[in-house]
Each structure stands twice: as C-alpha cells, then as structure tokens.
Amino acid sequence: MVQSVELLLDEAAEQRIRRQWELLAEAGLPGLGRGGRTSGDLDGHRPHITVAVARQIWPRIEQELDGLPFRPFPIHLGGVLVFGARRPILVRAVTPTEQLLAWHRRVHQVVSPCPDIPANLRPGRWTPHITLARRVLPQRIGEAVAAVATDKDTAATVVGVRRWDGDRRRAWAIAEHG
Fold first, then answer.
1. pLDDT of the chain, 178 residues: tens digit per residue
2. What burial class does residue 58 get, using C-beta atoms within 10 Å of its C-beta: 0-12 exposed, 13-18 middle, 19+ buried?
3. Who contacts 134 (Cβ-Cβ below 8 Å, separation ≥6)?
4. Domains of the chain (ranges plus CATH)?
5. Which of 20, 73, 98, 142 is the most buried (most CB within 10 A)?
C-alpha cells in the first residue's frame, strides 16, 4: 500500500469539491463521494492535495513531519484536467504558487529517504491537483468533464496537513489550523 502526506482545504473549498463528487455520482460516474477510500478514517475521504507518497514513512520521518511549522496559506483551484489515457483520472488543477511549492519541497526533503517515492511527486515534476474521479472509462471522460466543468476557478486556503496510512486505512492530522 502507500503512505502519504496531504494538504487539507478550508471548509468552503472542501464542500465545493464534495459537490463535484456528488455531481459525478449523480451522472453515474466513478467520483470519490460514495464510500471514499477508507472506512476507518473518521473524516471519511476528504478532498486533499497529495504532496508526498512513499511505500513506507518510517517513525523517525513521522517525527520530522510532526515538527514542520505550519500556517494556513492561500491557493487557487483551477480548471479540470485529465491524467492518463487507458483508465483516466479526472482532477481539478491547483495553481502552483511559491508558498505551495515551498511547502511541497519541505515535505519532500523530509520524506525523501523513504522507499518508492514516485518520480511524478518529486520537486520540479509534481502537478498539484485534487482528484475528482479515478478509473473513468475513456468513452465516458467527456461526460465526466461536463459534469464538473461548470465550477468556476476559485480561491481556497490550505488549513491543515494530514498523514494517510494505506496499510492501516487511517488518516490523522499532522497540523491543522483552528
């Protein structure tokens, strides 16, 4: 399984993404709103921006992550993108800002000794985004885009950081504001 570090959104932005998940579900498409990825996560599947992934995040790395100073910062949610071709993933782009990229570099620096970090999550190769749907059939990708494309680009705030443990199927806060 995977271990990850994720950035959490303010309540209004989280609700906008949840609404997009609902729109996909209403259209009979594979959004993330039904069931999410974990039943053990008290928050259910929350909209997030993944900043680091590894096969395992060791306890000493966990301690370093816990010590990272965090303050909320603004981001901008952009348009709809499609990753992949055979089993496309539908995402909402997150415009890279210096604050977002700096946070990503900080987390990557801490997590970099861990095993099996995907190349596309390394600084300079990372595309910040929020996943809306996975494994969309290629013939239905147009429907999926149409279901969520009416949502306007919008400002949001990163309000917290959490860890996801795919082996134990649970998440917990590393840092959260308010």
1. 689 999 999 999 999 999 999 999 998 987 776 544 433 343 458 999 999 999 999 999 999 999 999 999 999 999 999 998 888 999 999 999 999 999 999 999 999 999 999 999 999 999 999 999 988 999 999 999 999 988 778 999 999 999 999 888 899 998 766 5
2. middle
3. 30, 32, 87, 89
4. 3-170 (3.90.1140.10)
5. 20
